[in-house]
Amino acid sequence: MGPNGKVALVTGAGSGIGRATALALAGAGASVVIADVDDAGGAETVRMVEGNGGKAAFVHTDVTRSEDLERMVAFAEERFGALHIVHNNAGISTPPPRFPAAPLDSWEKTVMIDLWAVIAGTQAAVPAIKRGGGGVIINTASLAGLIAYLPDPIYAAAKHGVVGFTRSLAFLKDEANIRVNCVCPGVVNTPMIRKGAASLGPEALAQVEETLSRMPLMTPETIANAVLTLITDDRLNGQALSVIYGREPRLIDPPVSFGHDPAQGR
Ligand SMILES: NC(=O)c1ccc[n+]([C@@H]2O[C@H](COP(=O)([O-])OP(=O)(O)OC[C@H]3O[C@@H](n4cnc5c(N)ncnc54)[C@H](O)[C@@H]3O)[C@@H](O)[C@H]2O)c1
Fold first, then answer.
1. 188 lies in a domain?
2. pLDDT digits (tens, 9 = 90+) for 182-192
3. Whose CA is nearest to atom 36 of ligand 1?
């Protein structure tokens, strides 16, 4: 499904990967709803889209609040007349210290934003996308949703959940003409990869900057391109696409299959 003439909604579009996807979608002709808890970042993305001649509107959204999720979906339909594409992208890493030392509420917050909000955002969007005749939902998972990620086990748990949820929604294509896929990026140069260290102070941040300066980092635009592939290629449904620096994006098969198990049927 090409984005031209369609209505798209991107959560966490006030920064990083979400902003890059919003710009790419608008560049491809979609009207884009920018949903973020960060009003200034969201407004800046709208300015950037409009500066390129595209159409965008911001709606303040805390993805951990179901009433905000309902409101952002209603906003898309009111403002642009329909909803066809949703990118559940808002996310955080868990601030230090690492599990199990962290207080309960720090890992609850990660699970709420990185997993619960993807589930609730999808549930809020499905009726509207159905009303619009069908479409695509893309979830931002992570490489940490496919492999172990020792620095942040809670983040890894939530992102594995996003991959499992995405794969298990393949039935929506037949039921509602909605394809659901997820993107699994490696390390991307966005504010997120510095936030944990920044919360510990300037010394920790300088250390992380030093480490990052020796790492190959992807740009948010690289991930946005992969998201557009997942949107436009009608064959892709229930898929997880890994995007790693220096390699071609690759669809990742589940590690095992139970083809004969009726529970796996669509
Ligand atoms: N940067 C990486 O290396 C990397 C790698 C793999 C996956 N990801 C994932 O990509 C997604 C985007 O991250 P990013 O790197 O662009 O980070 P970012 O910090 O640049 O952007 C995240 C955005 O989400 C918003 N957000 C946070 N909590 C929110 C809430 N409760 N409600 C609404 N919006 C909220 C922030 O305000 C911010 O604008 C996340 O899901 C992240 O887990 C990032």
1. yes
2. 999 999 999 99
3. 12
